[in-house]
Amino acid sequence: MTTFRRAKLALKLSLGAALALGLATSLPAKADEQFFPLQSYRVGPYAAGGTCFFGGFIDYLNLINIRDGGVNGVKLTWDEGETQYEVERGVEVYERLKSRPGVAAWNPLSVGIAYAMIDRIGKDKVPLITINHGRTDSTDGRVFPYVFPLLLNPYSETSGIVNYIANREGGAEKLKGKKLVVLYHGSPYGKETIPIYKLLADKYGFELEQIEVPHPGNEQQSQWLSIRRAKADYVVLRGWGVMNPVALKTAQKTGFPVDHIIGNVWSNSEEDVIPAGDAAKGYVAITTQASGAEYPVLQEVIKTVYGAGKGNLDDKKRIGSVYHNLGIVNGILNVEAVRIAQEKFGKRTLTGDEVRWGFEHLQLDPARVEALGAKGLFHSINVTWDNHEGNGRVTFQQWDGARWKVVSDWISPDWAALRPIIEKSSTAYAREHGIKIRTSGDDPVGQ
Amino acid sequence: MTTITDIVPAPARSSLLNANALGIVLLLGLGYIIVPLVGSDYLMDAVLTPFLALALAAVGLNVLTGYAGQVSLGSAAFLAVGAYAAYDLNLRLPELPLLADIVLAGGIAAAIGIIFGLPSLRLRGFYLAVSTLAAQFFVQWALTKFGWFSNDNASGVIDAPVLRVGSLTFTSATGRYVFSLSVVAIATALTARLLASQTGRNFIAVRDHEVAAKVIGVPLLRTKLLAFGFSSFLIGVAGVLWAFAYLRTVEPAGFNLDRSFQILFIIIIGGLASLRGAFVGAAFIVAFPLLLSRLGAAVLGSVFDSGVLEMSQRIVIGALIIAVLIAEPRGLIALVDRATRALRRFRSSQT
User: Fold this and answer.
1) Is A418 within a domain?
2) Which of A102, A395, A432, B274 is 20 to 30 A from A317 via CA?
3) Which residues of B touch A192 (CB under 8 A)?
4) For B40-148+168-349, CATH number?
5) pLDDT digit string (tens) for A282-323?
6) Keywords of this protein's UniProt record, alphabetized (chain A) (predicted)?
7) What are the DSSP calls for B108-175, one per residue?
């Protein structure tokens, strides 16, 4: 090939690519589609969780499309932008996908990206879902109308863990004099619960020590030696990524009993225990959704979606894992919010604000959860305009070396005690940012 | 060594200057008029604003590393100092105008830069680079450790105030872009002036031969610390833009070592000791991957998932970096210069 020909070919190829790019961005909106922009992460340090969570979410959206033809005839669509869990990439994807027609809600599964979006989604009037994570005070819908930390926020997680330990000890009064060590990741996420543990220690009279593990957490020898010295009764593992298996292995080396280590909601997956091998056997962690593929909704996903060759996970062994099931539950909550909003606004493509109304009326009692095929997968949710967490119950699971087994009832955090602390923080935020605190009457679309 | 100024005759030099001035006017015209008129919000908010912020940071690092020859891996720390200092000044001294906050934040970054520049009096090259890592770790640690910096927000995350100059507010994507462009243009012009002065020549003398510089009377201590201070000032201001104009919510973890490396790569690929190189490098590292990612998604998005696409883009960018550095170790800007020289020779041979 001559240089000239080669240049011509290159020109043609790039023109073709440019044309395709133009076409892709200028396609007219099809009627009755609800779009889910996904800021997913399939590469980078947190890819294991990202592929499973977004895979589960997409699997559920696919199930609704294939089995039901969408939500009341409205097809669900989505597009992914890779973020590698980095904030600025998440923001870039947000800016890129936000102009698509019919955006239903954003689900970044990243504290950093969610924080960077709070200001933006408020202006664009589209809900931001931070299931199991995010800013605790965004639970207060009076101040954060568009942010939804569904099922669990860091404070209710903390309260749930302390309640569980109390149950195991035989009542809250038995906590007195017990020694609790919180081993936390040295990041904003890890530090978020420091004040609430202090508060609960004062309330129940247990001794408390909070020890930091610097990011990423590869080296924890000295921390576990102090835990031994402190003669801790329980260790709460508030970890992330590689810190979790290292903690379990180091605990084994120093002889701390693994069943007295209680993991938080980001230390509860297969990715956290499998690398620790034997050391993880007996480890307990909090969760909002059970793992396993025996629930009817998962069986339908396997039959309908994977049967049609449209499953998102390459490795089918990961179906029913913690993050995959979290993705499925996240899918259920998003789809049900759309369905509820459609009842009010019509069976058509909804605006972001209308979907927000749907999330604010997302009430799924255990009977409805069972009808959705998710009985036992998660308990229930009851979101209102001023409570964006929705009083979800939590449960505890224990790793038996091969799989997670649920070892407690669905227990409820101490919401009444947490609410005043959350309101104190959210009203301070409102003051700082000049936000008018909403009352039940002022809803832009929900009259 | 023969340089371009030796072989270009005197009259051509003034025309070269004119060509430079014309180029700058054209670029500013493009930046201020054409881009806001035809650019989408996405282009300005997600591509150009981070490009401008990192280009300014690269200008800052280029003063230190490219001109004064002091290698630093602490750039992200000074970005963080700028961002958090401006946030705290804004919060705690509300009577100060935002522009004063930005300048003062730059000043605070400069002060910390000078402190971490002290080892440069004893250390050189890789040793100095490793000692600047201390800044990287210390700043991130301090910001996470002391809640005061982030106004006791439990997660250490800060929210940026509205960009306001006098009665003007810059809240739209275009507004934030124009604000960033103005700050970057002014800071770059100031840097160009400084580098053209005796101080700039001192920087180069220190870089090229420390002993010789000392012999001809260049004050080593002052010059090195000035380079650290001025460079950190620019990077601090870039940090304010990054936090206030681009992300608008930042956390200490966002300013990690990766970001320092990114800025170092920008100046190496763009071209050391060249202000234009900082911009070309930033375009290559910040904007080009986005372009590639959109092209890839549009052409192959239906075939591969986003993870595979992302990986293949990394391979493409990595290969391009190797190719560029082999073809021209002095960076992209040397390629650009060579092309313009060839064009000029071609034009003069035509007349």
Assistant:
1) no
2) A395
3) 154-155
4) 1.10.3470
5) 999 999 999 999 999 999 999 999 999 999 999 999 999 999
6) Signal
7) HHHHHHHHHHGGGGT--HHHHHHHHHHHHHHHHHHHHH-GGGGTT-TT--EEPPPEEETTEEE-SHHH
